[in-house]
Specification:
- The chain is of the alpha+beta class and 122 residues long.
- The protein has a domain of 74 residues: Phage tail protein beta-alpha-beta fold (3-Layer(bab) Sandwich), CATH 3.55.50.
- 41% of the residues lie in helices and 21% in strands.
- The strands form 3 sheets. The protein has a 3-stranded mixed sheet. The chain has a two-stranded antiparallel sheet with strand order 1-5.
- Strand 6 and strand 7 form a beta hairpin.
- Helix 2 packs antiparallel against helix 4.
- The termini are far apart.
């Protein structure tokens, strides 16, 4: 009887840890995993969704932010972040990946500073 109880005790302690480990491993996909992409040029509102579907990733953007923005076509096998960056070249948009969740965020690029640079006095 004692052996049975100690095995049950062991399983009660170990099983939850195994479940956590399995979930962590299944969600811990590498951010540089290669995916196959074939997305034509077009409006960002549509093309970004297609790229996210093909890349098997989650993407977040505001329709207002991407409104009227054209993206480049992409084709080939590459990491999702590189696919988004190529699509968004020469556009006012950029992509950022949230480290913990793995979600990609599309946002407007910050404007380049204009004017003269100011140097601190010595």
């Amino acid at each position: 009887m004692m052996k049975v109880l100690s095995r049950l005790h062991f399983l009660k302690r170990v099983c939850p840890l195994l479940v956590v480990l399995l979930v962590a491993c299944s969600n811990g996909e590498r951010e540089d995993a290669l995916r196959s992409f074939e997305v034509g040029e077009g409006l960002a509102l549509e093309t970004l969704k297609h790229a996210a579907d093909q890349g098997g990733v989650d993407i977040v953007f505001s329709a207002e932010v991407v409104k009227g923005v054209q993206t480049r076509a992409i084709e080939g096998t590459l990491p999702p972040e590189q696919a988004f960056l190529r699509m968004l070249e020469d556009s006012p948009l950029t992509v950022v990946r949230h480290r913990e969740s793995g979600v990609y965020l599309i946002q407007r690029r910050l404007p380049e500073p204009q004017g003269e640079s100011i140097q601190a006095p010595n």
